[in-house]
Amino acid sequence: MARIGYARVSTTDQDLHSQLDRLRSEGCEIVRSEKVSGASREGRTELATVIEFLRQGDELLVTRLDRLGRDTRDVLNIVHECQQRGAFVTILDPHVSTRGEMGHVILTVLGMVAQMERRFIKERQREGIERAKAAGLYKGGKTRIDISRVRSLYQEGSRPTAIAKAIGCSRMQVYRILKSMR
């Protein structure tokens, strides 16, 4: 029986250390992490690896439910997949586990709250952008990729895959930047 931790933050500039420390202090022998949005399961390769690795009696631990996902259906599907493998899911804050029947009910409610919270965040963000646009202050989202570095690496002969790896972004983002250069 293994305790396997999963940590996630939404953006590359967020820090994983507190989650990783907490999961290790809870006795996780293996901890996988990634920096990707929890809005859907798309692109969450570490989570997929963890689920595939789970065996009968193993336990998947996350610090908070929203680290597992922000969509109720995704969270419930993840829990179901873990159960299909004979494993349990434990949320550390608040402490909830699928070992007992009540844990499933609580996880469902918490998943709904996480999804609702995501909707509220997006609504507040949209309202803020609209106000900033009306005031002439909106300049678009923060640039997270150094476009000049992409250009220089490409001009030096690097291929898009190598550029994406060097910069820490997806190949699609590199292709979009290169397309805008033409």
UniProtKB/TrEMBL annotation:
Enzyme active site: 10 (o-(5'-phospho-dna)-serine intermediate)
GO molecular function, one term: DNA strand exchange activity
GO BP of this protein: DNA integration
InterPro entries: Homeodomain-like_sf, Recombinase_CS, Resolv_N, Resolvase-like_N_sf, Resolvase_HTH_dom, SSR_resolvase
UniProt xrefs under PANTHER family: DNA-INVERTASE FROM LAMBDOID PROPHAGE, RESOLVASE HOMOLOG YNEB
Family to which this protein belongs: Belongs to the site-specific recombinase resolvase family.
Protein's name in the database: Recombinase family protein
